[in-house]
Amino acid sequence: xxxxxxxxxxxxxxxxxxxxxxFTQDRRLILREISRMDEHFHAEDVVERLRGRGAHVSRAxxxxxxxxxxxxxxxxxxxxxxxxxHYEPVVGSEHHDHMVCTECGKLIEFHDPExxxxxxxxxxxxxxxxxxHKVEIYGWCEECEARExxxxxxxxxxxxxxxx
Amino acid sequence: xxxxxxxxxxxxxxxxxxxxxxFTQDRRLILREISRMDEHFHAEDVVERLRGRGAHVSRAxxxxxxxxxxxxxxxxxxxxxxxxxHYEPVVGSEHHDHMVCTECGKLIEFHDPExxxxxxxxxxxxxxxxxxHKVEIYGWCEECEARExxxxxxxxxxxxxxxx
DNA sequence: GTGGTTGCAAATGATTTGCAGTCCC
DNA sequence: GGGACTGCAAATCATTTGCAACCAC
Lengths: 164, 164
Fold this sequence. Notes:
2 copies of one chain form a homodimer.
Chain A: H1 5-18, H2 25-35, E1 41-42, H3 43-52, H4 59-71, E2 75-78, E3 86-89, E4 97-101, E5 107-110, H5 113-126, E6 129-140, H6 142-160
Parallel strand pairs in A: 4-6
Antiparallel strand pairs in A: 1-3, 2-3, 4-5
Helix pairs in contact in A: 1-2, 2-4, 3-4
The structure holds a DNA duplex.
């Protein structure tokens, strides 16, 4: 979640002012809806939830607002092997990264301060000023790895012993 | 570049066999074209270059083949703030990651063995078997940072001293 | 006031897909 | 031979956009 609405609205309001943009009713509604989500979601989810709540916010407004929320640091794009862009709330300073299982699609979140430190170090060396980052490790989760190993074993004994 | 065609074709052929897929003429042509690219590119680039070369490979085949090349480890998706998916060749074991300037779009490649080691360590702890990973750091490159700093200074003195 | 915003629906544009004919193993 | 593969063009589908009415500041 985005923490209490107060701080999120404050942050967003600040960002909008900086950009000479307005904190309209629609933007407020979208922000509030997103504050209630703590899973990953995509644009259409927001549209549906607002509809379900009886709020009159058009699809276009949602699509126009999500990028602003990303820019303001309240949201970030989550890794999505799928087509529609996925977002996730940024919880205060609690940052995490992802491992994505390419077999079953499971998403594992992790956080490692050492990794953060190292990245900062690398940026410093490159004269680069980091604002946010994304670390995605793709591979097999424990279960899929085990399943895969089993399958491989089976294939081997089949190949060695008796032909089919 | 993908190194000499031999090893790339070997690797792709192996992958295809594993998946019970065929190493067709089209797939070979696409692989060869990609072996000649060393920049980032997207699907349409491959289509155009093949066309220009007089090869009859349909757009659909290119779109169907690129994911196979990614799966086989010969290509990987590059970070793209833009819509069309971008790819880049994987050069042997030479792995690198990216810093993306959100102002000017510049892409800075970097490689850090310590970062690799640390990620491996993190995966081990999580029981996750990594196959490949992606590190993208977004922020301001040196030039944009400087420009931004200058602008901020200007704004300040404007605010303090004399009105507009 | 007046410029940014919104809603709608039409436009876009990358990617996918159905299907008949073709090719690799 | 038979299942994979290909080409084509039509279909998808998330996202964007033009424009007139509207609202925050």
